[in-house]
C-alpha cells in the first residue's frame, strides 16, 4: 500500500468519485489548491478527521471512510495554526460540494419555462416520460386553473406550434412554452367567427386563422370541422375583393399545404371562381398572387382540374401579369405558366410555346426579368430553368427519330443540302450526263460533304441525334450560306487526310450540344441553372450549332488535325463549349466572342495549369513528407468545415407536391454542441442564433444519411426525375424519445452538399470522404509540399509578407471596351 508523506504546504484532495489528486504551490512556496481555496475554520472539520502528529506519514488508502453524505465533498488538508509548516500537524477540512461532480439530470428531464398572460412564469422540470395531459394538469394546478383539458402548451417562439405527444421531444433545455387554449376549442371559436353575419367578426376570425393554419394540429381540427368548406364559401361568394379575400385564400392555401385533403377534391365552381380573380382587371394586388399560387397547386395536384385551369386561364392573361412590375405577381404567373406547360402533351406544349414566342414573351423575359435592376429570386430562376428545359425538350422527338430512306421530303432535304454546297457547278457539270453518271456525281459530292456512307441516309439512322442533325445542317446552310459554302469548299480543297468532314462533324456536334444542354432529360425539381443566352435569340439551339460548327473548323485547323484526330478535336471542342457555357454569357454574340477567344493553345495552357495544380511527385521522400503533413491539413479542413456550419445556410423545403417556395435556416452553435434551425422568409437577412426556435443537440444525433438512404428521397420513388435530389439530399437521424426522427436537407448545390456533409461527419467524429475534401487536401498538400521544397532551392521563406509596391504615377490604363456584356 503506497504511503505519501508531506512535510510542507497544503495537499488538495478531491475525494469525490472519479476525482484526481491535485497538488501545487503558491507564490510563497506553499502548496496551493487549484483553484485556490480559502482556509476553512478547523472547528467545522471535527467529523472528518483529527490532527496528525508531527512528521507522521499519511496513508491515503486507509480503510477509514468519511460519512456517506461527504462522499462527494472536496477535502483540504491544511497545517494547524500556530504550528510550523515543517512537519506540523494537519486538519482535514470540508470545502463543500464539488461543482464538477454535480449529478446531471436524467436524460428525459428538461428544464423549461411556461408563460401565461398576466401570471408569473413557471420554471419546471418536464419529465418526457410523463403523459402530456398530466404535465398540463400540473401546470394548470400551479395557477389554480380548473379544466386543464381546455388548455394546451405551445412553443413561445418561432411558429408557436402546439405541443403534442408526437412533437414533444422537440422540447429542449431552456425552451420557453406558453399556455393557450386547446386547439379544438381554438378551432371551434375561429369557425364560429367565420360563420358570423357581421363582416367585422368574420374578418377578425380570418386574421386569427391565418397564423394558426400552418400548425398541423390546429389544421386537422379545422379540417375535421368542415373549415375548408366554410373558407370555400367565403372565397366563392367574393363579397369583399380586398384584404378579406386575400386572408381567405391564404388560410385555404395553408390548410391545403398539409396534404390532409387532396387537391382533386376541390369543386369545379370553386376553381372557376378563383380563375375569375386571376382574369379580373381591377383586383387587389394581394389577391392575384395568392389566386395564381392556388391555381398552380391545383394544376400540379389534379390533372383533371389542371385541364380546367388551362381552358379557363388564357395565355394572354398570364402575359399581362408577367408584364406588371411586381416581382411577386411575375413569379406566381411564371409558376402557373410552367405548371400548365408541364401538364400539357408534347403537341399542346409546342402550340403554347409557339404562341408565347409570337407574343414576344422571350424578349420580355430577356429585357425586363433577366436584365431587371432588382435581383432575381431563386423561385423565378427555377421557373426560367424549367421554361428553358421544356422548350429544348421540343427537340427530343426529332432527336429520337432516325431518317426514313423512303421519305420523299427527307430525300429532298438531303439533296437541298448538297445543292447548296455544290450547285450550280454540279448542275452544269451534270447536264447531258446519263443517270448512272449523275448518281455517281451525287455520291462523290455527298462524300465531300463528309458523309461516311455512299447513302447519306445511313449516317442519319443513328439516334440520337437522328433528324435533329439534319435540321441543324439545313439551318446552317440556309441562314449562313456563305459560311456553309466556305466550310465545305475549303475542306474539299485540302488533302484527303486533313479535310474536316462536315456531315460527320455536324452529327457528332449535335450529340454534344444535346448532352451539354440536357435535351431530352426531365426537369430538375430544384435547379436554377438557366442560360440567359437562351432568351436572347430565336432558334437558340440552331444558332448555337452555327457558332459551334465554325468553331470546330477553326479548332481543326489550329490542331492541324487529320481524320485519325477526329475524336481528339471533338474533346477539345467539348471543353471549349463547356467552359464558355459555364460563364453564362448573356447573348449569342458574347458567346461567339468568348468561345473563339478560347483557342486550342489557350485550352492547352489551361490544361497545363490545372495539371500543375493537381500533379504531385511520386518520389518516396515526397510521399513520406505528404503523409506527415496529412493529419495537420485534415485538421485544417475539419476546422474550415465546422466554421462553415457555424455560418449557417438557407435550405429550401420540398413539399409533397415538390414546391420549393419556403426557406429554412440551419447553423451550428459556436460551441459545436447544438444545431439550431428554423423557418425564414425569402429575402430576409440571415437570422441570429437567438431567433432560431428549433434546437438539435449534437449528442442526440445517431447518423448522417446521404442520397437514396434519406427518407425524404425514398418517399419520392426512384424515377429518373429524382436523380438531382439523390445527389443533393442528406439527412440527420436523431433520438426522438423512443423513436428515431430525421432532419432532412436538400443542398442548394453540389459544393454546399460536400461542405455540409463533411462538416456533419467531422462533428460526429467520422471520416470526411467527399470529393471536395479530396480536392482541398490535394491542393493544400501540393502547396505545402512546394513551400517545404523551396528551402532545398535556397529560396528563403520570409516571416513577413513582402511590402506593397508604390502606386503608379498615373492611372490612365488602356481598356478595350469592345468586348463587354450588354
UniProtKB/TrEMBL annotation:
Keyword Ion transport found: no
All copies of domain ELMO, residue ranges: 409-581
Gene Ontology biological process terms, A to Z: actin filament organization; apoptotic process; cell motility; phagocytosis
GO molecular function, one term: SH3 domain binding
Keywords: Apoptosis, Phagocytosis, SH3-binding
Source domain of life: Eukaryota
Cross-referenced PANTHER family: ENGULFMENT AND CELL MOTILITY, ENGULFMENT AND CELL MOTILITY PROTEIN 3
Function of the protein: Involved in cytoskeletal rearrangements required for phagocytosis of apoptotic cells and cell motility. Acts in association with DOCK1 and CRK. Was initially proposed to be required in complex with DOCK1 to activate Rac Rho small GTPases. May enhance the guanine nucleotide exchange factor (GEF) activity of DOCK1.
Name of the protein this chain belongs to: Engulfment and cell motility protein 3 isoform X2
Organism listed in the record: Cricetulus griseus (Chinese hamster)
Species classification: Eukaryota, Metazoa, Chordata, Craniata, Vertebrata
